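Q: Joint fold for the lines below.
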Amino acid sequence: MTTTRGKTGSKSLESTRGERRANRRLRQLRALIEMAALVNSTLDLKEIKKRAIRAAAELLDAETGSLLLIDQKTGELYFEYALRKGERLTEVRLKKGEGIAGWVAEHGSPQIVHDVGADSRFFRNADMISEFTTKNMICVPVRTKEKALGILEAVNKRKGSFDSDDLEILAAFADHVALAMENAILYEENIRQLKSRLAEEKRHASEKEKMLRDLHDGIGGITTNISLLAEIGRKKSSLGEVRKTLATIAELSREGLSEIKSFMCSLDIKEDNWRAMTAELRRIGSSMVEPLGISFAMDAADCDQKEYPRGLLSINVFRIYKEAMTNVIKHSGAGSVHVTMEVGPSGLRLAVRDDGRGLAGAKGKGRGLLNMKTRAEEIGGRLEVASGKGACVLLDVPFPLKYPGVDIEF
Ligand SMILES: Nc1ncnc2c1ncn2[C@@H]1O[C@H](COP(=O)(O)OP(=O)(O)O)[C@@H](O)[C@H]1O
Ligand SMILES: [Mg+2]
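A: Joint structure:
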């Protein structure tokens, strides 16, 4: 009887222990579902990380939790948030493979450490800095299919010690954290791209508007003048006066034509790169001066830039360049022209130098130099004309481009 009773007693003891474990497991699973939903209910990366740390401690009934992130460039691990205020954990950085977390990150396999004091991998600095005593811990990787994001830890089990059930729960939770983080990162990246696309579109729209205004004021103005002059000319009776009017009309038409050509040149560059633009400047330059017996040379240095030669920038560079070359032909009496074009991260510099008579004593009444200056300012740049032995027209446009009147933040 006694034996039988004894047997029954130990059986019922076993079943209560089993029941307790099952109940505990059920509670943990419920909590896991709840916490997984909680981290996935926001797209705010900072909030996800905070919730993950709190949940890791809560799920495993631990004193604290922590999340170490992997610096994707160096492979180092760092704490972004501490659970308790005043903890200076955020100053701690673990080198690749350092500490238990570093080991887990490197090997990709979760770890339970029952006594950190007896584990040679344990990194004591974190405890020293945060004035906290780590006794035991459980540590799992947080990773997506493609990428390791970090390490999630639960530290100091309140009652008993961490077991394989805890490990399973934390590992499952870490997968949800990784998913939530991945979604948030993707979302933030999309928002960033959208914002920069919007800024770019805004810039294009305002550039288009400026170009239209430019076209209206430039070619529009010239055409209006031509038609007015033609009307006046028709009413003139003296042949001399008619001829004079026709000469002005001819000059204005040439100016208009050159304007149109500049527009076409800048629109004609098929590739949006500086090399293509430099090649076009070289072609235009030599075809303008060489037939007149003036030798032409060009040096160019460029590298890939965030700024591209298009729109207003390209149109105005072409116009300034053509006006400078026309002046060399018309006024300098030079035997050679030397052009340099440098494009670097800090900006663009174009110089047209001739070896002619220079500007000293020039009393031309044209609008060319003035126009060049206005056009340089229109693209946020500056134009200087220097005169020594020969003349030099120097255009500087700083990058990143900032057109006056185009009020957009990038
Ligand atoms: N490269 C140059 N060499 C010598 N003189 C120049 C040169 N460029 C401009 N000038 C002088 O500056 C004057 C003003 O030039 P600009 O404003 O372009 O007007 P325009 O060409 O219509 O005369 C010219 O008339 C000329 O006397
Ligand atoms: Mg001129």
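Q: Anything notable?
A: Residues 406-410 have pLDDT under 50 and may be disordered. The pocket of adenosine-5'-diphosphate (ligand 1) is lined by residues 327-328, 330-332, 354, 356-359, 362, 364, 366-369, 391 (CB under 6 Å).
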